[in-house]
Amino acid sequence: MTQSHRADLQKDPARVSGMFDEVAAGYDRTNTILSVGNDRLWRIATTRALSPRPGQRILDLAAGTGTSSVAIARTGAEVVAADFSPGMIAEGRRRHAGVPGVSFVEADATNLPFEDEEFDAVTISFGLRNVQDADAGLREMLRVTKPGGRLVICEFSHPTSPAISALYRFYNDRILPPIARLVSSNGDAYDYLNESIRAWSDQPSLAGRIRAAGWTDVAWRNLTFGVVALHRARKPVGDGGSEPR
What we know:
It is a single chain. Helix content is 42%, strand content 20%. With 245 residues, the chain is α/β, with parallel strands linked by helices. A seven-stranded mixed β-sheet has the order 3-2-1-4-5-7-6, with helices on both faces. The longest helix is centred in the last third of the chain and has 22 residues. The chain is globular. The protein starts with 12 loop residues before the first helix and ends in an 11-residue tail after the last strand.
Protein backbone atom coordinates (compact mmCIF):
# COMPACT_ATOMS: atom_id res chain seq x y z
CA MET A 1 0.00 0.00 0.00
CA THR A 2 1.45 3.36 -1.00
CA GLN A 3 1.74 6.25 1.42
CA SER A 4 -0.60 9.14 0.62
CA HIS A 5 0.81 12.63 0.43
CA ARG A 6 -0.55 15.02 3.01
CA ALA A 7 0.70 18.61 3.04
CA ASP A 8 0.93 20.76 6.15
CA LEU A 9 1.07 24.49 6.78
CA GLN A 10 4.78 24.60 5.92
CA LYS A 11 3.48 24.08 2.35
CA ASP A 12 6.53 22.25 1.11
CA PRO A 13 6.12 22.43 -2.70
CA ALA A 14 6.95 18.76 -3.27
CA ARG A 15 4.42 17.59 -0.69
CA VAL A 16 1.67 19.93 -1.89
CA SER A 17 2.31 18.95 -5.52
CA GLY A 18 2.30 15.26 -4.62
CA MET A 19 -0.96 15.67 -2.74
CA PHE A 20 -2.65 17.24 -5.74
CA ASP A 21 -1.17 14.62 -8.09
CA GLU A 22 -3.02 11.97 -6.08
CA VAL A 23 -6.43 13.65 -6.24
CA ALA A 24 -6.22 14.89 -9.84
CA ALA A 25 -8.51 12.32 -11.48
CA GLY A 26 -11.48 12.98 -9.17
CA TYR A 27 -10.62 16.54 -8.16
CA ASP A 28 -13.43 18.42 -9.93
CA ARG A 29 -16.12 15.92 -8.92
CA THR A 30 -14.97 16.03 -5.29
CA ASN A 31 -14.96 19.83 -5.25
CA THR A 32 -18.50 19.97 -6.61
CA ILE A 33 -19.71 17.54 -3.93
CA LEU A 34 -17.91 19.23 -1.04
CA SER A 35 -18.95 22.74 -2.09
CA VAL A 36 -22.56 21.59 -2.60
CA GLY A 37 -22.35 22.82 -6.19
CA ASN A 38 -21.18 26.30 -5.30
CA ASP A 39 -17.87 25.80 -7.13
CA ARG A 40 -19.68 26.37 -10.42
CA LEU A 41 -21.16 29.65 -9.20
CA TRP A 42 -17.75 30.79 -7.94
CA ARG A 43 -16.25 29.96 -11.34
CA ILE A 44 -18.89 32.05 -13.13
CA ALA A 45 -18.29 35.00 -10.78
CA THR A 46 -14.53 34.77 -11.34
CA THR A 47 -14.86 34.74 -15.12
CA ARG A 48 -17.19 37.75 -15.01
CA ALA A 49 -14.79 39.67 -12.77
CA LEU A 50 -11.93 38.81 -15.11
CA SER A 51 -13.96 40.16 -18.04
CA PRO A 52 -11.89 38.38 -20.73
CA ARG A 53 -12.12 39.54 -24.32
CA PRO A 54 -11.26 37.90 -27.64
CA GLY A 55 -7.57 38.19 -28.43
CA GLN A 56 -6.45 38.73 -24.85
CA ARG A 57 -3.81 36.48 -23.33
CA ILE A 58 -4.73 35.30 -19.83
CA LEU A 59 -2.79 33.30 -17.26
CA ASP A 60 -4.89 30.94 -15.14
CA LEU A 61 -2.68 29.93 -12.21
CA ALA A 62 -3.36 26.88 -10.04
CA ALA A 63 -5.61 25.87 -12.92
CA GLY A 64 -5.78 22.23 -11.86
CA THR A 65 -7.42 20.20 -14.60
CA GLY A 66 -8.27 23.36 -16.56
CA THR A 67 -12.00 23.57 -15.87
CA SER A 68 -11.78 27.31 -15.19
CA SER A 69 -9.41 27.82 -18.14
CA VAL A 70 -11.89 26.27 -20.55
CA ALA A 71 -14.65 28.56 -19.25
CA ILE A 72 -12.43 31.61 -19.82
CA ALA A 73 -11.38 30.44 -23.29
CA ARG A 74 -15.03 30.28 -24.40
CA THR A 75 -14.92 34.09 -24.51
CA GLY A 76 -12.30 33.95 -27.28
CA ALA A 77 -9.33 34.74 -25.04
CA GLU A 78 -6.11 32.72 -25.22
CA VAL A 79 -5.61 31.00 -21.87
CA VAL A 80 -2.47 29.48 -20.39
CA ALA A 81 -3.50 26.97 -17.74
CA ALA A 82 -0.59 26.71 -15.28
CA ASP A 83 -0.24 24.43 -12.28
CA PHE A 84 2.73 23.04 -10.36
CA SER A 85 1.17 19.57 -10.05
CA PRO A 86 2.26 17.37 -12.97
CA GLY A 87 -0.71 15.09 -12.26
CA MET A 88 -3.17 17.97 -12.60
CA ILE A 89 -1.55 19.14 -15.84
CA ALA A 90 -1.61 15.62 -17.29
CA GLU A 91 -5.29 15.21 -16.39
CA GLY A 92 -6.09 18.62 -17.88
CA ARG A 93 -4.34 17.78 -21.14
CA ARG A 94 -6.17 14.44 -21.29
CA ARG A 95 -9.57 16.06 -20.81
CA HIS A 96 -9.16 19.24 -22.83
CA ALA A 97 -6.56 18.47 -25.49
CA GLY A 98 -8.88 19.58 -28.30
CA VAL A 99 -10.18 22.78 -26.72
CA PRO A 100 -9.10 25.80 -28.80
CA GLY A 101 -7.32 28.63 -27.02
CA VAL A 102 -6.13 26.60 -24.01
CA SER A 103 -2.56 25.44 -23.40
CA PHE A 104 -1.16 23.70 -20.30
CA VAL A 105 2.12 24.56 -18.59
CA GLU A 106 3.70 23.17 -15.42
CA ALA A 107 4.72 26.23 -13.40
CA ASP A 108 5.67 27.38 -9.91
CA ALA A 109 3.74 30.54 -8.94
CA THR A 110 6.82 31.97 -7.20
CA ASN A 111 9.03 31.56 -10.28
CA LEU A 112 6.86 31.78 -13.38
CA PRO A 113 8.40 30.65 -16.69
CA PHE A 114 7.04 33.66 -18.59
CA GLU A 115 8.40 36.98 -19.85
CA ASP A 116 7.71 40.33 -18.20
CA GLU A 117 4.36 41.92 -19.14
CA GLU A 118 3.22 38.89 -21.16
CA PHE A 119 -0.43 38.69 -20.06
CA ASP A 120 -3.45 40.99 -20.17
CA ALA A 121 -4.78 39.41 -16.98
CA VAL A 122 -3.85 36.83 -14.34
CA THR A 123 -6.27 34.83 -12.23
CA ILE A 124 -5.85 32.24 -9.51
CA SER A 125 -8.69 30.33 -7.84
CA PHE A 126 -8.28 28.44 -4.57
CA GLY A 127 -4.55 28.23 -5.10
CA LEU A 128 -2.88 31.25 -3.55
CA ARG A 129 -3.12 29.90 -0.01
CA ASN A 130 -1.27 26.75 -1.18
CA VAL A 131 1.74 28.75 -2.40
CA GLN A 132 4.61 28.52 0.07
CA ASP A 133 5.43 32.22 -0.36
CA ALA A 134 2.15 33.81 -1.44
CA ASP A 135 3.60 37.33 -1.38
CA ALA A 136 6.35 36.28 -3.81
CA GLY A 137 3.61 34.75 -5.95
CA LEU A 138 1.70 38.04 -6.00
CA ARG A 139 4.86 39.85 -7.11
CA GLU A 140 5.46 37.29 -9.87
CA MET A 141 1.89 37.75 -11.09
CA LEU A 142 2.53 41.50 -11.22
CA ARG A 143 5.72 40.96 -13.21
CA VAL A 144 4.09 38.93 -15.97
CA THR A 145 1.06 41.25 -16.29
CA LYS A 146 0.94 44.15 -18.74
CA PRO A 147 0.57 47.67 -17.33
CA GLY A 148 -3.10 48.26 -16.66
CA GLY A 149 -3.73 44.51 -16.67
CA ARG A 150 -6.06 42.80 -14.24
CA LEU A 151 -5.66 40.41 -11.32
CA VAL A 152 -8.58 38.31 -10.05
CA ILE A 153 -8.19 36.04 -7.03
CA CYS A 154 -10.95 33.71 -5.88
CA GLU A 155 -10.07 32.16 -2.53
CA PHE A 156 -11.59 30.75 0.62
CA SER A 157 -11.96 33.49 3.21
CA HIS A 158 -13.66 34.29 6.52
CA PRO A 159 -17.44 34.64 6.86
CA THR A 160 -18.39 38.01 8.29
CA SER A 161 -21.42 36.76 10.25
CA PRO A 162 -20.70 34.92 13.53
CA ALA A 163 -23.61 32.55 12.88
CA ILE A 164 -22.41 31.69 9.36
CA SER A 165 -18.85 31.36 10.66
CA ALA A 166 -19.96 28.85 13.32
CA LEU A 167 -21.97 26.86 10.78
CA TYR A 168 -19.03 26.88 8.36
CA ARG A 169 -16.62 25.62 11.06
CA PHE A 170 -19.07 22.85 11.96
CA TYR A 171 -19.34 21.79 8.31
CA ASN A 172 -15.56 21.82 7.80
CA ASP A 173 -14.82 19.99 11.06
CA ARG A 174 -17.64 17.42 11.22
CA ILE A 175 -19.29 17.02 7.82
CA LEU A 176 -16.57 17.55 5.24
CA PRO A 177 -13.92 15.04 6.50
CA PRO A 178 -16.05 11.87 6.29
CA ILE A 179 -17.49 12.90 2.92
CA ALA A 180 -13.99 13.64 1.61
CA ARG A 181 -12.79 10.21 2.71
CA LEU A 182 -15.72 8.63 0.93
CA VAL A 183 -15.43 10.44 -2.42
CA SER A 184 -11.74 11.37 -2.68
CA SER A 185 -8.71 9.21 -3.43
CA ASN A 186 -6.84 11.02 -0.64
CA GLY A 187 -9.20 12.08 2.13
CA ASP A 188 -6.29 13.26 4.29
CA ALA A 189 -5.69 16.04 1.76
CA TYR A 190 -8.91 17.65 2.91
CA ASP A 191 -7.67 17.83 6.50
CA TYR A 192 -4.98 20.12 5.09
CA LEU A 193 -7.75 22.06 3.34
CA ASN A 194 -9.35 22.85 6.70
CA GLU A 195 -6.04 23.85 8.28
CA SER A 196 -5.03 26.08 5.38
CA ILE A 197 -8.40 27.88 5.38
CA ARG A 198 -8.23 28.59 9.12
CA ALA A 199 -4.70 29.98 8.82
CA TRP A 200 -5.40 32.05 5.70
CA SER A 201 -5.72 35.85 5.61
CA ASP A 202 -9.12 37.44 5.98
CA GLN A 203 -10.45 39.80 3.32
CA PRO A 204 -8.83 43.08 4.47
CA SER A 205 -5.51 41.36 5.23
CA LEU A 206 -5.30 39.76 1.80
CA ALA A 207 -6.18 43.09 0.19
CA GLY A 208 -3.26 44.63 2.08
CA ARG A 209 -0.90 41.91 0.87
CA ILE A 210 -2.02 42.50 -2.72
CA ARG A 211 -1.31 46.23 -2.38
CA ALA A 212 2.06 45.54 -0.78
CA ALA A 213 3.00 43.44 -3.83
CA GLY A 214 2.51 46.52 -6.03
CA TRP A 215 -1.06 46.18 -7.29
CA THR A 216 -3.50 49.10 -7.28
CA ASP A 217 -7.30 49.56 -7.34
CA VAL A 218 -7.59 46.64 -4.92
CA ALA A 219 -11.14 45.63 -4.02
CA TRP A 220 -13.04 42.54 -2.99
CA ARG A 221 -16.56 41.22 -2.65
CA ASN A 222 -17.81 38.28 -0.66
CA LEU A 223 -19.37 35.20 -2.22
CA THR A 224 -21.51 32.73 -0.25
CA PHE A 225 -21.57 34.92 2.88
CA GLY A 226 -17.79 35.35 2.89
CA VAL A 227 -16.94 31.66 2.73
CA VAL A 228 -15.19 32.76 -0.47
CA ALA A 229 -13.96 36.21 -1.44
CA LEU A 230 -13.27 37.56 -4.92
CA HIS A 231 -10.35 40.01 -4.91
CA ARG A 232 -9.60 42.30 -7.87
CA ALA A 233 -6.71 44.61 -8.69
CA ARG A 234 -4.81 46.26 -11.54
CA LYS A 235 -1.18 46.67 -12.40
CA PRO A 236 -0.20 50.35 -12.30
CA VAL A 237 0.29 52.07 -15.64
CA GLY A 238 3.77 53.63 -15.71
CA ASP A 239 4.89 56.74 -17.52
CA GLY A 240 3.96 56.43 -21.15
CA GLY A 241 2.09 53.20 -20.53
CA SER A 242 -1.43 52.38 -21.59
CA GLU A 243 -4.04 49.87 -20.62
CA PRO A 244 -4.09 46.63 -22.64
CA ARG A 245 -6.89 46.43 -25.20
